[in-house]
Structure formats: C-alpha cells, structure tokens
Design goal:
Part of the 30S ribosomal subunit. This protein has 194 residues and is mostly helical. The chain has 6 helices and 2 strands, in the order αααββααα. Helices cover 45% and strands 8% of the residues. The chain has a two-stranded antiparallel sheet with strand order 1-2.
C-alpha cells in the first residue's frame, strides 16, 4: 500500500481553482481562510470556538451566506452548486482565478467604519467606530450575496449569473455593485456622525 503525504497532494477548490491568492489588505489576512480544500463543507466544526469561522475556507463562508433565510435556507448542496457555477462564470468572464476575484471583491466591499448607538443619560448618540476585521469580512460577504439575490429576484437572470456579476463588479470597485454602494453608504453615515 502506498502512503501519500498531505503536502504532496495538490488540492484545489471544486477540483479547479487554486487557493494560492494574494490578499493585499493586511488587516484581513488572518480572517480570509485560504486553506486548500476540495469540498468546502466543514459541517460546523468551527461553531463553538472563538474566532473559529476565521479558519473556515472563504468559499465555504460564501456558500453559507448564499444559504441565508429565504428560498435557499438550509440547502447547502444548492448553495454549493450556485457558487460553483458562479465561479465558472467568473473564470469565463475575467480569465482569472475566481478565488482571487472573490478576495479582491471582499477587500473592496468591506466597510472600514460604521455607526454604533451609545445611550448616555437617556439620550442616544450615534458614534462612528472602526469595524473589526472579522466583521468587515462578514459584512462584505453578506452584501455580495444580498446584491446577487436582489438582482435575480423577480428576474429571469439566474442567481449564479447575478452572483458572478456582483463579485466581478465589487472586485473592480464598480459603483453599480450593491456591495460597494452599501459600503459607501455605511461609511458616509459614519463620516457624518463623527
């Protein structure tokens, strides 16, 4: 029987995409999981560990966000196939590694500043605060998926195509992207309440 070393096996996401990508934002490096996995499905092993979701592959976190309440709630295989098809579309349209495009989209659409409510003596103040890196990634993924769902709802365009277009638009910092618009809105509100 042959023995294989784990390091010698070249794992790629969906059997196609390499996870050796560049993260330019230093604050997000720890929170964008790029470990090589063939099937991004950990089954909630991170659930009870503090900052456990930071170790989750970023593709799986995208899949989990596609499963948000609504039509796709709890249907992980459907979400998996949506993301897989969206990645194929991204590769066809851009000619780049879709994981690199996704990471760039997350970097561009992650808000840096937001508003929090502070109650002081019965009066509510809105104060601008910096966003934690983990929350930046969470918000970016959520807004990317929300934009895709909004674009494909009551529309003949399939969600796979909408998700691919949203990720490509966010990666190129296009103001037509829902995630970029949402980020700018959050930062504008934070700027006004400094």
């Amino acid at each position: 029987m042959e023995s294989f070393e784990v390091s010698s096996i070249d794992l790629k996401v969906f059997g196609k995409w390499d996870t050796k990508v560049e993260i330019r934002d230093p604050s997000l490096k720890k929170y964008i999981g790029l470990m090589p996995v063939y099937l991004p499905h950990t089954g909630g092993r991170h659930e009870h560990r503090r900052f456990g979701k930071a170790k989750l592959p970023i593709v799986e976190r995208l899949i989990n966000n596609v499963m948000r309440p609504g039509r796709n709630k709890g249907k992980k295989m459907l979400a998996y196939n949506i993301v897989k098809t969206a990645f194929d579309i991204i590769a066809l349209k851009t000619g780049q590694n879709p994981i690199q495009v996704l990471v760039k989209a997350i970097e561009n659409s992650a808000p840096r500043e937001e508003v929090t409510r502070i109650m002081y003596g019965g009066i509510v103040y809105y104060v601008a605060v910096d966003v934690a890196p983990q929350r930046r990634v969470d918000l970016a993924l959520r807004h990317l998926v929300m934009g895709a769902k909004e674009a494909s709802f009551n529309n003949p365009k399939p969600i796979e195509e909408a998700l691919a277009e949203e990720i490509i638009a966010a990666a190129s910092n296009d103001p037509k992207s829902f995630a970029i618009r949402k980020k700018e809105e959050i930062e504008r509100i934070a700027l006004s309440s400094r």
